[in-house]
């Protein structure tokens, strides 16, 4: 059998989470309210929406989440036991600047992250910090319709200044925005952009307004570039990553119309933001897309210059599924796959209709490496599933199987020549789901005893996958 290349020395085997899905303590130690604290629950076909504040008696799992805020020591010790080399976490902006009157950062909020970084250092786990992960301080929604306004951009840079200065010696790897390209599709309006709120003229049905959405995206890309420039001045060793939600697009058939449609979708959905963040300018195809969709945004000469200057150092993406595009009206929208399009008859789906496609990961890795020729990291991947606890054990062979198949394809890609430097498995510990707001869509290698209604002891239990991943890391991917 043909010999595959080994994973490189120093490969970052890791795990990923986001503040609003794990920390809890939503109003403790001076933390302000974020959009994640006031989201409705989601369901099939119905995205989560921002509501106007907390309603009496209404339960939001994110408020307590898995209480990482108080249990971080125990959790990081478990990460260390698993052998993690890297831990991807995000900062809750509203812990640092809680409301619109905060001129100085909230010391208590910063102390929490001081402690987390200290704990990670103790075990030699490299932090990878996402500055913004779906939890805009809520007051921006009321004040200015979230990221649609440049006011948020300025405040984001204030946050960056505080973080870069305080953590100049603790953090080397930064991601400016989680899944920045979520704003290329309407879903991104709410949890990512914090736009279109009750009180704005669009609230009635919280409909999509592409001008505002692409303005928000532009503001984020400019903010990212400014952050990169600022960060490198504070510590030239800092390394910045993009982060793209890569929903790889296949043509449904070899009909040229399907091929062209798939390419068009791929360019706007998957390539657009990476092209801006790594090549430093809007790509040629965006102009036609903007024209055809009548999108006009404010784009200054200063923006143009900063986009050129503040390009990211490495490429990262989340990978959960692939989709198919069909130009044939009979197959254009087939049910059974969450992201729409035509159903791929060769792929299985998980319980939430996410099309599982390990080989698509190898394809995607080659695609992005060929495009940018930069070190690549997979910063999210994993299987959402309902686990069953049997006599205190969780036998999650399905998760082991899923992860093994994806890691095998990573090794294929490395053998192809792709410079893959890390893999941070999503929801290394069970977290609140981003799309449903519930607990029972679990990804973790560590189980957390909590249900959708907030019941449970929050006890941590190692799943079978914990021991499996531990072995993978110990053997640097040789034993899968
Ligand atoms: C990504 C988000 C994560 C995460 C993951 C899984 O889009 O960056 O925050 O939650 O998807 O999604 P879900 O929790 O909806 O299954």
Automatic annotation (TrEMBL):
In terms of domain of life, where is this protein from? Answer: Bacteria
Q: Name one GO molecular function term.
A: hydrolase activity, acting on glycosyl bonds
Spans traversing the lipid bilayer: none
- Keywords, alphabetical: Glycosidase, Hydrolase
Pfam families documented for this protein: Glyco_hydro_1 (PF00232)
Q: Which InterPro entries match?
A: GH, GH_1_N_CS, Glyco_hydro_1
Q: What is its EC number?
A: 3.2.1.-
Family that this chain belongs to: Belongs to the glycosyl hydrolase 1 family.
* UniProt-recorded name of the protein: Glycoside hydrolase family 1 protein
Which organism's genome codes for this protein?
A: Paenibacillus haidiansis
